[in-house]
Amino acid sequence: MQITLDELLNLLVARLDTLEVAVEDLKMRTNVLSRLLKAKADFEKDDVESAVRKEFEVMKDAGMISEYKEQEIKKYSEQIWSWLVGDVKELREALERYREKLEEIARQARSKASIDIASPDLLTHLDQLQNKGKPPKIL
């Protein structure tokens, strides 16, 4: 089975779109369940920090990370707590920083030289021009 590069790219983009929809759906479900848990369960910011610390310990024991810092625990705990209580201001600021990073990456990608793929006809023509006056190669 042969497919063109364009067909392959279309297939990959369609798959990426499907994955993006699935991730957004999971994110929405997680947000709803987490806020429901926060509303029904009686836990505080310290409990979130303790859970984050335990998760870092599990990741370290599993070999997923080599070490972690107290500062990382505080940062993750603050972000999760803000998310649970619905601190929209902080979420908007984080999204804005994320968008700025994406725009910067896109600008850098546009400024770099692009790679074009030559068609087989062009390659054949270039080979013919290069081999003009030379005897043909026998394979």
How would you concisely characterize the structure shown here?
The protein has 5 helices and no strands. It is mainly α.
Overview of the molecule:
- With 139 residues, the protein is mostly helical.
- It folds into two domains: 1-42; 45-110, no CATH class.
- It is built from five helices and no strands.
- The protein has helices at residues 5-40, 45-61, 70-85, 88-111, 120-130.
- Helix 2 packs across helix 3.
- The mean pLDDT is 86.
* Shape category: elongated
The profile of the biggest β sheet is: none
- Strand-pairing-aware structural class: mainly alpha
Q: What's the total count of β strands?
A: 0
Number of domains: 2
Question: How is the topology of this model organized?
Answer:
Blueprint: H1 5-40, H2 45-61, H3 70-85, H4 88-111, H5 120-130
Helix pairs in contact: 2-3
Properties at a glance:
mainly alpha; 139 residues; 75% helix; elongated; 5 helices
